[in-house]
Design goal:
Blueprint lengths: L1 H19 L28 E7 L9 E3 L2 E5 L4 E5 L5 E6 L9 E3 L2 E5 L4 E6 L5 E6 L9 E5 L2 E7 L4 E5 L6 E6 L9 E2 L4 E4 L4 E5 L6 E6 L9 E3 L2 E5 L5 E5 L4 E6 L13 E2 L3 E5 L4 E6 L5 E6 L9 E2 L3 E5 L4 E6 L5 E6 L9 E3 L2 E5 L4 E6 L6
Antiparallel strand pairs: 1-32, 2-3, 3-4, 4-5, 6-7, 7-8, 8-9, 10-11, 11-12, 12-13, 14-15, 15-16, 16-17, 18-19, 19-20, 20-21, 22-23, 23-24, 24-25, 26-27, 27-28, 28-29, 30-31, 31-32
Length: 376
Amino acid sequence: MRKLILSILIFQAALLPLASQVPAEEWPVFRGKSDLSGSVEYDLPLNPELLWSFSSGTKSQSSPVISDGVIFFGSDNGNIFAVGPDRKVRWTYNSGSPVTAPPLVYSGKLFFGCDNGTFIALDQLTGKQAWVFKSDNQIAGSANYWRSGKKSGIIFGSYDYCLHCLDPATGKSLWTIETENYINGTPSIYENKIIFGGCDGYIRIVDPVTGNERDTISIGVYIAASPALADQKGWFGDYDGNFYCIDILKGKIIWQCGPGSGSGSVLSVPATDGKVVLVGRDDNYLYCYEALTGKLVWKFRTNGSIKGSVVITPSQAVFGSSDGYIYLLSLKDGKKLWSFNAGAPVVSSPAIAESNFYILTADGRLLAFGKKSNIK
């Protein structure tokens, strides 16, 4: 019997790495992971090359997501594009209304919201419509997902003042939380908690299974973007340019940085590895703070506002600016390592897959960067 049990344990142990592996070409949710931390554990090439460019033929405010090597993004004319790593279009779907936020890939489906309040699920492989849910106002932020045991849900905010949770398979409402104003950003997920802000000036911490509020933190100013989460903490900015760190467990503000002279609104999502936190502002600067203290480490100036969100690697930061450039900086000191003139404003956030990254220009071009020598 002992030999049989030992054999079973050895067999199960052999399967564990396979079950826990994440495909290399994955960035299925805005910011890469459901905690919206915008960080990866590997560096990009020091001098990325433009591998290819795909023009959607229309303007876009969306950001790309990646699943099974396919890049998905929305456009201002209502189209959703599925583009392969070979630059070929796998499928397109027209929703009939602008899709300004990044889509979400989860459980074989692509989920996204539209300016007319419609929330749509498509088959990831074919683009065929699976179901439609109608909220009562514009959906400006991306969706996210939670999973607890065998239960799961798709969550998104709307200008109807509500955070909605839907069944991924059917689109039926599981629960709804009503707030006091628009919800503009993407809800974050961390250790069985939903954390999101809204234009009512509150950060809310919610149980994903029941939809019950566990805690609220009053900020008193519009919160247009989303919090990034790590190590039981959350970082986010408000419309007045203030930047915060909160304790998720205690429901309290740990530190706050004021906007300073000439500092603009925070409309982007921070990126953090738990040691430092980076965020762009409307004052044209990318800021790097110590995550635990809020002490400014460095700041980097571009010639345009930074509305897209930065992504960080162990030693780098990559982001786009409204000045039309894409930047790669040293995470340590903020020195510029590389830049690329995209020829149009960049309000998109990068999506990273191994040594490549993808980003959209405001005129609707999807740009792929990496090393040509790595292409087989």
